[in-house]
TrEMBL record:
A single GO molecular function term of this UniProt record: oxidoreductase activity
Gene3D superfamilies for the chain: Di-copper center containing domain from catechol oxidase
UniProt keyword list: Copper, Metal-binding
Full protein name: Common central domain of tyrosinase
């Protein structure tokens, strides 16, 4: 796993992170997810993965903006472990989380050494969705309400965990298509079909085509008509 484990953070940091997530999760942000539910994202294995990756990226951008780059990439909560008390939100009212120990393991099927048994992203996404649904159902409360679930901070770090599995699968399997010489917009389109996206970063320039760097979130850098992009899994 490449995202830090939420349960390894000191409680005071978890408290702060949970409150920042709540600040970010305004009604407009909740609606983005609710609209995605309406358009069927949770029945489409690829849409499921890519929608939530972008959704988390919005929070990560907010954290950077607020001066908390240390939580980017967003920490991940493994649902084989209990929800930490600082993430027991909401803890009262009709939407309160009902079960802090859903006890759902993603092992061994989603362990690194078994990930390549998923031949396609559709297969992986389908298997992840099923297991993911069980976690939502077992936590209950607002987490069992697809349209409102992102009001719970645990939603975000749980999806961070799912995304990390996809990221790892991509790292092991995805062949990055050549986009050298294309305009940034065209390259971005092609790459998005592979679940990859471009980002500007002038510090990681390489003119030698695709280069994989061992850092999270594993940027691949290439030269596109003189502009520099990073490809993030
Ligand atoms: Cu979910």
């Amino acid at each position: 796993m490449h995202r830090p484990n939420l349960n390894n953070l000191p409680p005071s940091e978890r408290t702060l992170l949970a409150s920042l997530i709540q600040q970010y999760a305004t009604p407009g942000i909740i609606n983005l997810h609710s609209n995605a539910v309406s358009s069927g994202v949770h029945n489409d294995p690829v849409g499921f993965l890519s929608f939530h990756r972008n959704y988390i990226a919005g929070l990560e951008a907010f954290l950077i903006e607020q001066g908390y780059a240390q939580w980017v990439p967003l920490p991940a909560w493994n649902p084989a472990e209990p929800i930490p008390e600082e993430f027991n939100i909401p803890n009262s009212g009709p939407e309160r989380l009902l079960n802090l120990n859903p006890n759902v393991s993603f092992s061994p099927e989603f362990d690194q050494e078994n990930l390549t048994n998923f031949a396609t992203v559709e297969e992986l996404g389908m298997a992840l969705m099923t297991r993911h649904n069980l976690v939502h159902a077992r936590i209950g409360g607002v987490m069992n309400n697809l349209r409102r679930a992102p009001i719970a901070p645990i939603f975000w770090v749980f999806h961070s965990f799912i995304d990390d599995i996809w990221w790892e699968w991509q790292r092991l399997t995805v062949v990055v298509p050549s986009v050298i010489g294309l305009k940034l917009a065209d390259a971005t389109n092609i790459l998005s079909n592979f679940g990859l996206r471009t980002m500007r970063n002038a510090n990681l320039y390489t003119s030698a085509g695709v280069k994989i760097k061992q850092q999270r979130p594993a940027p691949l850098t290439l030269s596109l008509l003189g502009s520099v992009v990073e490809l993030y899994y």
